[in-house]
Amino acid sequence: MQEPFRDPALPLSARIDDLMRRLTLEEKTGLLHQYQAPVERLGVGAFRTGTEALHGLAWLGPASVFPQAVGLASTWDPDLVRRVGEAVGDEVLAFHHKDPAGAGLNVWAPVVNPLRDPRWGRNEEGYSEDPWLTGVTATAFALGLRGSAPETLKTAPTLKHFLAYNNETDRCTTSSSLPPRVLHEYELPAFRPAIEQGAAVAVMPSYNLVNGRPAHLSPLIGQVLRAWAPGDLLVVSDAYAPGNLTTLQGYHDTLPEAYAHAVKAGIDSFTQDDDRAEATLGHLREALRLGLLTEADVDTAVRHALSIRFRLGEFDPATPYDGITDNVVNCPEHQALAREAARRSFVLLRNDGLLPLDGTGTVAVIGQLGDALMEDWYSGTLPYAVTARAGLAERCRTVFCEAVDRVTLTAEAGPVTADPAGGPLGVGGAAPEPAAGGFDLFDWGGGAYALRAVTTGRFVSVDGRTLVNDQPGPNGWEVRQTFRMEERPRGTLALRHISTGCYVGAGPEGVLRLVDDADQAVWLAMDVVRSGAEQAARLAAGADVAVVVVGDHPLVNGRETEDRMTLALAPAQDAVARAVRAANPRTVMVVTSGYPLTWTASEVPAVIWSAHGGQEYGHALAEVLLGDADPEGRLTQTWYRSEQELPDLLDYDIIASDATYQYFRGVPLHPFGHGLSYTTFGYAGLRVRLDGGVLRAEVTVTNTGTRPGVEVVQFYTHQRRSRVKQPLRRLRGFEKVRLAPGESRTVTLALPVSELAFWDVTRSRFVVERAPHRLMVGRSATDLRLSAAFEVEGETIPPQTGPLRAACHDEYDAITFVDETKEDGDAVRSDAEGAWILFRQVDVTGRVSCVATAGSAEGGMITIRRGDPLYGPALATLPVPRTGRHTYHSVTAPLADADGVHDLYVVFENDGVRLSLLDFGAGA
C-alpha cells in the first residue's frame, strides 16, 4: 500500500504531515544540515542544498556560461533574463539526472543585494543599485530557474544574501547600520518581489551583522520574509556562517545556544563543515537536551525543508521535467541564447560617430583582455571561448597584441629564470635571451600583478611555498598567482604574494620561495625589454581602426573576501589606451568589467562596456561593433568619476550620505540608465492623469534617425514637498521599444499611487503624503526629456506622541544602530561625545523618560535639547547607569518649559550609551 506522502493527489500540507508523523526526532534532526541524511526505512533519500548557478551551472564541469549577473541586468529585458534562467535550470536538472548527489536542485541564485557601492568585491553578482529594478530582474531569473509547471519546481531558487551585504572587508564581523527608512525603502524591496510571487522559494542570510545582530539570527526572517511567502520558505545558512556565531562574532558562548537561536530565528539548514554533519547535529541534539530547542522548533524547520523537496517532485512517481537530459547542456539553442544575451547587454557609453564600424580595412585588436575570456567564482566552466579577437577575426582583417610589458627580473645572485617544464623559479645562472626569457607582466589594477613566464607561456604561482610556473592564469578559490611590488633601495623591488602576505625570497640552490620576514625578501631589479604601450601604439598606427580591450580580472580586482580601494582602470592598461588613442584617432575602447571603472584616456571617440560576457562574448561584440545590432544595454549603476565621490564603504545609509542615483547630487561620469544607440530618439506628448488610485502616463517616442534602433524608455518620479528627505529621482517603470527609422510608439506607465509611499518612522508604516510630485521620462536618470506635475491627495503626518523608539528618529549624528536584545528590536548607541538623534514635531508635555544603558562603569548622560543639538535650550538631563549590553534602566526627569510641539534633540554627552525608548508627556 502506498504511503500517503507519496500520493501526488493529496494536498501538499497533508503529504508533509504524513511524512512528519513517520519521522523520529533523531531523523528529523538529521534533516537540518546541508547534507540531509537519508531515512532508509522510509525510502527517503539523501538531499543536499546548494548548487551554484548565478549565470550558468558552476563548479561541476563545462556548461553554458552566460553574461555575469550585472551584465544580464544591463539588458533591461526581464523576458530575456527569464529565458536565461530557464536554460540554466535545464542544465542543472540535466546534471542532476546524471549525478543526483553532485548536482542538487536547491540552487543558490540569484543575488539580490542592491549594488549600493561599486567597490564591493562581488559587484558582478548583483543586478542594480536600484532595488526595484533588482527585484524585477531577480524575479525573472528565478521564474526561469523554478520552471513553468504550477505545482512542481524544476529547481528551487535561493535569494542571496539577506541582509545589507555590500562589503567583503571584515564581512563576518562588520555590522551594517540600517535606519528604518533605508531598511524598508532600499534593502527589503529587492527581496520582496521574487518571494511574494513565488519565484524564489528559499533565502540565504549573509555573513555580516545588521544593527549589531548576526544576519543569521535576524527576526526579519520570520517577521518579514515568511510573511511575504505564499508557501513555505526554506532558509539555508551561508557556508560556515553558523560557526561564526561563537567565534568571529562572539554573539553566543556555546554552539548549542547559538544553533538553537538560529533555528528559532528561522534557519532551516546548516551549511557547516561541508559534508561532515555530525558536529552540527551533535550541537542541535545538545540544544534539545538542554531545553534550548523543542521538538516543535525542529518540526517547523524540517517542514520548510521537506516542503521544497516535495515541490521538487522527489516523492512523486513522475515530474514534468523527467525528460530533460544532458543533451541540453551547451546545446545549440543555449549557445544562441548566450550570444543573444551577450549582444543585448553591451552598453554604448560614448560615440562621436566612429561606431558602427564598416568592417573594411585592418582592425588592430589590442589589450590583455583582447584574446582572453574570464571565468569568475560563480560562473560555469567555459565549454568554449569566443574572445574579442576571435569574434572580430571572423568578420574583419585583424592584427593583435596583448600590449603587456615584457620584463626581466634580476637579483644580486643573477637573473630570475623559469623552469621550462613548469617547475620552480630560480635565481642565478646565465641570463636568458631577451626574446625567449623573462616574464610578461599583467597589471590587473589595485597594485595586483601577475607574471607569465615567456619560456612556458604559463603563469607564476605558488606550490606550497615554492614559486613555480605552471598555471594558465589567476584561478581558484584562493588565488595564488598575484603579487604586489614594494619599493626597495636603488630602484629595486620586493615581490609580496597577495594570497599569503609572504615575500619572495631565495631558498636552497637559488629556488625562489615564500618567506615570512620582509627582511629576507630578495631585492629584484626589473627591466622592461618590451613596452606593451609602445608595441600597442605601433600596431594601432598601422591599422585602419584600433579596438583596445581593457578591464578587470574577476578573481583579482576585488572578489569574495576582498573589496576594491579604487575604481580606476589598471595603470598599465590605462597607459595602453592612451598610447593607442594617440597613435590612431579611430580608436574604440571596449571595457569589460564586473563593476564601473574610470580611466584617463578621455579623448577616445567611442567607448562600449559589458560585463564578462560568457562563451559567446566575441561574437556578440563583433555584431555590435559592426552594426548588425543596435547597442541595447543600459547601465544599472551610477558610474562615478572617482571613488572620492563615494561615502565610506561601510556607510549603508544611502539617504544621509547622498548615495546611488536616487540621492547623488554630483555629475557622474555616466548616470544610472545611460546607454547610447546608433540612432536618435525624440520624446513628445507626455500626458499624466490620476485614475482611481493609479497614476497613468503615456509618451510618444520616435526614432528620429536613419537606422533601426532600440530605446529603453525610463519613467522616474520625484516628490517635491515632504516631511522627510526624498530621492531626487526614483525609477518607477521602463519599456524597451524597437523602432524603425521614423517609426513612433506610445509608451505607457500605470503606477499605483500606493507605490509613492515612504516609510514613516513616526508610526512605523508606509505612508503616502499629500504632496506635489513630478513625473519625468527620458533616456537615463539625468537625461530626462519631458516632465509633468501631478498632485497626490495623501496624508499629513501628525506630530509625534507617546513612546518613541530610539531607532525611529528623523536624523542623527555619530550614532550606530545596534541590537536592542539578542532576539529582537533595534536601539541606538552613541559613538562620540555630543552624538545626537533628532525627533521632529514631538508633542511634549510634563516629563520625559528613557530606557537606556551606559557602556562605561561611570555611566552616561543624555540631554534633551530643543531646536539645536549644541545651542538649543536644555529641557532635561537624564543620568544613565551601566546595566549591561542588553539590560536597560528606566530614567525619568521633568521637562523644563516645553509644552507644545517641538523638534527635540537627544544629545549623548558621552559615547557608548545605548538608548532603546523615549517617552514624553505627563504620564512619562
UniProtKB/TrEMBL annotation:
GO terms for molecular function: alpha-L-arabinofuranosidase activity; beta-glucosidase activity; carbohydrate binding; xylan 1,4-beta-xylosidase activity. The keyword rRNA processing does not apply. The keyword Hydrolase applies. One of its GO terms (biological process) is arabinan catabolic process. Residues 799-922 form the Cellulose binding type IV domain. Keywords: Hydrolase, Signal. Residues 711-781 form the Fibronectin type III-like domain. Catalyzes the hydrolysis of a non-reducing terminal alpha-L-arabinopyranosidic linkage in ginsenoside Rb2 (alpha-L-arabinopyranosyl-(1->6)-alpha-D-glucopyranosyl) to release alpha-D-glucopyranosyl (Rd). It is not able to hydrolyze alpha-L-arabinofuranosyl-(1->6)-alpha-D-glucopyranosyl (Rc). Belongs to the glycosyl hydrolase 3 family. This is Exo-alpha-(1->6)-L-arabinopyranosidase.
